[in-house]
Amino acid sequence: MSAVSLSSFIAAFANFVNADIQTAMPILLAATGLIFNERTGVVNIGVEGVMLMGAFAGVAGSFLLGNVWLGVLVAIVAGGILGLIFTFLVETARADQVVVGMAFNLLGLGLTTMINRAMFGLNTTPPRIDSFHPVNIPVLSKLPFFGIAFFTHTYLTYLAFLVIPLVSFIVFKTNIGLVLRSVGEHPRAADTVGINVVRVRYIAGMVSCMFGAVGGAYLSLSQLNFFTEGMTAGRGFIALAAVVFGKWSPVGVLGATILFGAGSALSYQLQTLNSYISSNQLLLTLPYVLTILGLAGFAGKAVGPAASGKPYIKE
Amino acid sequence: MKLRSVVMPMVAIVLALIIGALIIKALGMDPVLAYTNLAIGAFGNIYGISNTLLEATPLIFTGLSFALARRAGLLNIGAEGQLYIGGLCSVLVGAFIHGLPMIIHLPLALLAGFVGGGLWGWIAGWLKVKFGSNEIITTVMLNYIAIYLVSYMVSGPIIEPPGDMSQSPPVLHSAQLPYLNAGTQLHWGFVLALIMAGLYYIFMWHTRKGYEARVVGFNPDAGAYVGINRNQLIYLVMFLAGGLAGLGGSGEILGIQHRLYQNFSPGYGYDGIAVALLGLNTPIGTVLAAILFGALRAGGNLMQVAAKVPLDLVYVIEALVIIFVASEYLFRRVKLPKFNLRFRRGIERSEPL
């Protein structure tokens, strides 16, 4: 292979990794949040709806307040409120987690579409809003391969690069993580040693939805710069799959989302590479097929937190 | 118990409508105007009523699909994809096989939809049995795959010549579901949906397999203890659930659209979940809930035009209804002393992910 084609291959691969990171990030953020939730024994099937509401809240916040960071803040607040409501329903009101989750998905779709139309009308051109732009990190972005792949992203991506290892550290190396996990594995035992099980679940539920909402806002403010109806397109469910696939650990989830992100990135790159491929729609199924294969390849070995899916009822 | 299972959904609907009104108000629109038009559009005249039943038709199919799987302890979120595959298979038979009399062609097209949707559902069952893959996730993934597959088919392999528009050729007259009433669009698919609700009842409560499905759904351990083959049951239940949703797609294609388009369903599969939950997974409940949501949809169109309230309010109302029904524990503190039996038969706690 000549030097020219090798360097162009490296450049193409760097671009691919860059695209992979961008497509994986919303899923990774949502899945990271889900780890908190699921570690305490709560499964939120409604993360798709939470992401969608986060995506809209981010755009609405940025539009109304004129600053993209304030948009993210609005998304975080919205996520916190949703997490509070969700946990109230499944813990305090003892509603079925799956049922409430599905309701959240419907609610997310309905509310965001309604408010979007009320705010922006049925315009074909999306409103101009402040959004994230790629920022080249001095020196590092000039590195061969790594520069393009990792250091030409938006600020929100860099922030996520920092937050995700932090979450991993919290869940596995600190007392907080121990409390979370004990609540998920054996809530009664956790209660006996003085842990307030319900409060822990409330906090974890809120943090989880905040992550999900930021994942959605990443989609609308960093990947794109507008909101479209139903734009999450199943990413919440892919995040749920990623948590199972990644065995409830942040590093595992990272691997899973990078794999699923690669599916999307690949399908887009193949489309731009070869305009003759008439089966565009078939290529678009790639991330979903990969998710199924990933889940199947896991061959049922995944064992989640023991107390998953049930509210804690103190006796 | 009987009274409670009727009262709770009613309370849930009223509460959801009230909150919906507050949201309409908050968005600066007129809730009274909106709901008036909603009611007129849904029940105002013969066209309104037939539109309501027309909109209810796919929801009965997808609602029964979710209910059947749920009774057996499975969560079929995949009705949407199964419906698409059902529509696709019906078109393959209905538009491409020529020269058959209606009495053979139409049942064959319906059967194709049932089997196609059934196999699509069966895939999720197979993944669960063989690999332990959670059916919630696999069915959702299969939805997206089915939707893209249909888009692919109508913009390539089965596109109508000369190929200017992404649509299939028309379904032949011999495979179209006839209209029930000249002048309205209501077709025999609605009757078929009611028949399916009846068959669902017979299967679930008067056959051995249905009984086993309910035992496993109620308590998987008990099922294993009495020697029920759970894997076999998963295949059967996912096939039947998929088939019901597939028929929903057939009804849309053979009854109204008469062609296959991309994105021909505005989410009937997902709405079926709400329908089944509200109907407590019973056949009558599911039909009634489907008619209610059909009314919201039929009326919603007029509401959107006359009061400028987006049709998506319907989703919000559906979501709120589900939440209120599911949060029944909160309302249980409001005493109805003589009726303290469980009403939540249909929404037993699901197994965790």
Question: How would you describe what is shown here?
Answer:
- The complex is a heterodimer of chains A (315) and B (353).
- Chain A has 315 residues and is mainly α.
- Chain A has 13 helices and no strands.
- Chain A has helices spanning 3-39, 47-65, 68-92, 97-120, 146-150, 155-173, 175-185, 187-192, 197-223, 235-245, 250-273, 280-283, 286-297.
- Chain A starts with a helix and ends in an 18-residue tail after the last helix.
- Chain B is mostly helical.
- Chain B has a single domain, classed as ABC transporter involved in vitamin B12 uptake, BtuC.
- Chain B is built from 14 helices and no strands.
- Chain B has helices at residues 2-26, 31-43, 46-71, 79-96, 102-131, 135-154, 189-206, 208-218, 220-225, 230-257, 268-278, 283-307, 313-326, 328-332.
- In chain B, α1 crosses α2, α3 packs across α11 (268-278) and α4 (79-96) packs antiparallel against α5.
- The radius of gyration of chain B is 21 Å and the shape is globular.
- Residues 337-353 of chain B have low confidence and may be disordered.
| Strand tally of chain A | 0
Q: Look at the helices and sheets of chain A and give the structural class.
A: mainly alpha
Strand content of chain B: under 5%
On the 0-100 scale, what is the average pLDDT of chain A? 84
Q: What is the string of helix and strand elements of chain A?
A: HHHHHHHHHHHHH
What pattern of helices and strands is seen along the backbone of chain B? HHHHHHHHHHHHHH
Low-confidence stretches of chain B: 337-353
Oligomer: heterodimer
Compute the CA-based radius of gyration of chain B: 21 Å
CATH topology of chain B: ABC transporter involved in vitamin B12 uptake, BtuC
Summarize the structure.
The complex is a heterodimer of chains A (315) and B (353). Chain A has helices at 3-39, 47-65, 68-92, 97-120, 146-150, 155-173, 175-185, 187-192, 197-223, 235-245, 250-273, 280-283, 286-297.
